[in-house]
Amino acid sequence: MERITVTLGERSYPITIAAGLFSDPASFLPLKSGAQVMVVTNETLAPLYLNPVRAILEHAGIIVDQVILPDGEQYKTLAVLERIFTALLEKPHGRDTTLIALGGGVIGDMAGFAAASYQRGVRFIQVPTTLLAQVDSSVGGKTAVNHPLGKNMIGAFYQPASVIIDLDCLKSLPPRELSSGLAEVIKYGIILDYAFFVWLEEHMDSLLALDPDALSYCIRRCCELKAEVVAADERETGLRALLNLGHTYGHAIETHMGYGNWLHGEAVAAGMVMAAHAARRLGQFSADDLLRVTGLLARAGLPVAGPEGMAPEEYLPHMMRDKKVVSGKLRLILPQGLGKAEVRAGVPDDIVLASIADCRT
Amino acid sequence: MERITVTLGERSYPITIAAGLFSDPASFLPLKSGAQVMVVTNETLAPLYLNPVRAILEHAGIIVDQVILPDGEQYKTLAVLERIFTALLEKPHGRDTTLIALGGGVIGDMAGFAAASYQRGVRFIQVPTTLLAQVDSSVGGKTAVNHPLGKNMIGAFYQPASVIIDLDCLKSLPPRELSSGLAEVIKYGIILDYAFFVWLEEHMDSLLALDPDALSYCIRRCCELKAEVVAADERETGLRALLNLGHTYGHAIETHMGYGNWLHGEAVAAGMVMAAHAARRLGQFSADDLLRVTGLLARAGLPVAGPEGMAPEEYLPHMMRDKKVVSGKLRLILPQGLGKAEVRAGVPDDIVLASIADCRT
Fold first, then answer.
1. Closest CA to B65 of B29, B89, B32
2. Hey, which residues does A65 pair with through a beta bridge?
3. What interface predicted TM-score (ipTM) does this complex get?
4. Which phi and psi angles does A81 have, rounded to 5°?
5. Enzyme class, one word (chains A, B) (predicted)?
6. Which of A 25-54 lie inside 8 A of B, CB atoms?
7. Are residues A213 and A291 in the same domain?
8. How many CB atoms lie within 10 A of CB A77?
9. Which chain B residue's Cα is nearest to A36?
10. Same-domain status, A161 and A255
11. In a designed cystine with B206, which of A75, B211, B282, B317 is the match (CB 3.0 to 4.6 A)?
């Protein structure tokens, strides 16, 4: 079992990584007998994990309610969020309740924002079941829902009480979802850790084959990196913005294509290639490194170009709604070689447009 | 001009109270030329205040957008909240925007929650135009929308950057709204300040006649009391709960009757009388004090009984969804004589029911 701490003063919390956590009652401590919890999950995951998790909790004397949402990014809306509040109020759950987010990034983001907002804040536990949620979205307290005009535009910084990562979940993950998670994994290598990028080049086949040791190391390393960044800059005033490599382009793809048509990691993969092209055009990223990035993403089963038929000009209005825009000026995350990145304001529009055109299919 | 500070470390902020603030550009400092703001107001207030406020801001070089919501507690919903986000994204507004809540408690609660949630948090300024918002809801950072199953169930603790109280607003306030605000004013006397209660008994006629000196003193005293309570207990782990005197009963009335049919202060007035009856039945509130409370509320034009036809049993399910419920146990705010109150758990259901029956019309 691996245990990492996200260090945030009195809001610090542990990330536990191991196989078989869902069959170990200790996983969900410090929930105590008599406590009330609401498990938030979706229609795809409920048949796989809900009963074992309920059984473990109920065995410990915990009162378990559940709300099962439809599956998909297109349901990450205020309207679907309201269903969580309705479920909580129907029972009713008090301020001392705990929400358990059992699912991928969409469930984690929604249950987290529901926990931040229900009665102005209740406790929640992240139980990520996808690679993407395990390595990225479940750690660090970013919660949100989408708006038709922009992804993750409505939300809160709100930290979980703990993160419980059961490696067994990945056995039933569809290959496209695994690849989507690998996009965020590769991102850490590009922006923060060249040695990890090299490790990924060496172990991509093992990861795709779900080798337990490779997965365990990979998830731990990503969580370590994320925990360090979040501890240093919880509310994204600086360093944390680097974790958005590829996301400004990627969110434009997700919003333009309709939420759920491109998986988040797929859009981020294409976006990272675009950012690499922008960096190359600005003279801070070599053609060799660009080939290594596109090569590794492609091996992970990810797109390295934007959607067919989406013109470069169609990216810009979406990109201007990015949360990193300040005083109407776009700020992009750009790699500076492999293992290092920067937040860069004032990249000219023609470079941005060219970087997108560089990646058209 | 009166100025009070709400002391919350780096999130401290000023409350400014005076006549004529809307015609003084200095009121909206530290907004600077080039800043982007979104004024949130409603259909009733827009014709009264929007143009002067816009003019002052635009004169200072600030870029002003506006969103005008329908007027009434029944519109304090997630669906109407989404209109604020849409207005922000259509322009688009970045993380460096400022929301200005120009209105009563409903506008302040909604614009505040929108500010807490838009891009995970932007700045906002409270500009309360009703007595209720000026003495209570605009100060202290409680923001929320309602759910059909419970009032203020979805929200955040999120402090404004400043509170601007222009006393001239009260000249155009409908009498029923003035009375509603006086309910919260009288509340401060009952729970925290006997001398202020006596002052209110002596000056109620002046307040109802909108005497400027009386209003100015009254609003300042309420803001001082609220600022002290909030500074001591921002997130309502103890002392702050006292500000909810009458609210557990009152929220039940508002929810049962349909939001907007009883004004918030009207429901709180009836609820305070019920709480006083419960306290009397528990031997901690005299019949004389009860008469003084009902007498003062009645003079302020407020109901001292619940809605006709709402049976005591109909209050309880709503009351059990109160945010002060812990482990399924109701906690009530009860006065202990005039000027002092307590949070009390374990009040027997029959006392609660009897306290409601004591106040039936």
1. B89
2. A38
3. 0.93
4. -55, -40
5. lyase
6. 34
7. yes
8. 18
9. B327
10. no
11. B211
